[in-house]
Please model this.
Amino acid sequence: MYPTSIPALRRAIRDDPAFEDWSFRDNPPMTDPDSGEQIGGGTFSIWTTPEGEDLVVSPINVTLTSSDRPRPQVRVDTDKAKRAYTYARREKQRFFFLAYCTNPGLDWKFRAGLNLSHYIVSLESPLDGRTGGRVDIRSMYDALETRDGQDFFRVTENQHSCSSLRQGAFISLAGENGDFDPARLRDYLLYFDSRPYQKDLGAGRRPVYVPSALYETPDPEPLALPWNLLVHGAPGTGKSHFLEEKAREFQAQYASVEVRRVTFYEDCSYGQFVGQYMPVPVEDARRLVELETPGGPVSGGVTGSQITYRFVPGPLAELLAGSLAAKLNGDGGKFVLIVEELNRANAAGVFGDVFQLLDRERGVSVYEITPQAELAEYLYDAVVTLLGPESPLPPPEAFRRLRLPDNLYIWATMNSADQGVFPLDSAFKRRWDYIYRDICDVDPAAANRSWICLPVLEEATGRFTPTRLDWNAFRTAINRQILTAGFAEDRCLGYWFFSAEELEAVEAYTTAAAENRNGEGARDLSQLPNPLVDKLFAYLMQDVFRNMPAGLFAEGVTGLSQVRQALKRLELEGEPAGIKRLLRLPSAAYVPAPPEEA
Model:
């Protein structure tokens, strides 16, 4: 049942559960201080929100005239609304001019089934300087012919022909079952700031905030990778490099893509990742001090450093605030959080209640959570700071129920073979898409260096030669030994196991060791780094062949110190020994690098 008079409309709104915590009163008789005009009691209403804000509201009945015309006039009287507007502007309060059709049975000459009483129209316009006591708004109502059924829409200046009004917002009063439901009107009154329409208080027009703007307005150009992406594979397969390159591609393709990188570790916590209350020093803080002295109490201000507590956001909260602001700004901004070494921390614990938000459909969380009050307050403050002057201003309540928007991406890397890592439970893992980085995939364009320099003994001369061997052939032979020994593929070596700088260090060490052994130099090798031993052989001996070094190393080689001394002196058990003597690898492991590459 829809109200059939303005008093009935006021009662229906007042008694509806949507306005349960509001209060309503009419204005008392008053005299306009500027014009001296008498304003009778009940000319307009004061509606007070649960937060205590007074809104000046002028609900006016829509009337129909000249119904014999092909297009009869739809009018509203403005006399009372003008007085209400003048009062609101003087008191710097928000003002709402609400037009409502209380008699849908008149011959409006709209298409069949169109019911004007299902909408209340907020006429968003300054009323100072207006002459006459009515405005014709038929051209605004024409929009219902094509937009009837929408919960909310606005008719702007270039979409209607009423020169004395700027625009009007149509707010549906029809609930899901078709009954009178003013909940959307309540949201509109809470979120829309009408004051920018007053020229003397103008701060840029700000449209009404619609809750669906955060999560239900799809990103027209999503990134070409999943929203939750986990890149996994053996060490050196280019997991981080892959995500870094993709991020750069997207930054070149789109106007705004912000990328943040964070690394998980064993003691990483929810507070560090999402945010937490922390003590923060405040310099030059002033506080009142009262002292009891023999002459009586003395008080005064003291200035100095002081510790206070405030919410300190983590990388996820910061990017989430940016992504929500971008949704409201409509600027197409996208945000990527890259989590390195996801399983080096208790990932489910670090994500905390955000874990639930990882269940996403087209980028938006399927379920919502109630975040901690501190996080909700931070998001409100941060988002409002990032909004443009034309963007809708959300209320604090907008962040008390939280989901992830579709412009926020969380990408991660992990290697399950790393020692000391935390296993990921199945509930956490199923919320991710996966890309596996194959140990066989090699992109020559992205290669750090195609060779590795190793000491080779020339049997005929007894001299050692620093020889540039094909790195891919060498690591492939080691991988075959790892797989033959029964270890999983994620223990194997990826092509990017060494950086370019590390391969240069291996060559420098190999050259110096060969010169020392050949009697051509006397370098102190203890001062040179050797990633061949310190990184590669340490990984193979301590993490892969930990309990069976004979699976890769020569007979009698049982410890890393022994390997280090062998490569330093280029001898094993008193005999000259190069790389071929130290490892159990086939001849296919020692392929010379092509001359043009070496």
Remarks:
- The mean pLDDT is 86.
- Residues 484 and 551 are 9 Å apart (CA to CA).
- The first helix runs from residue 6 to 15.
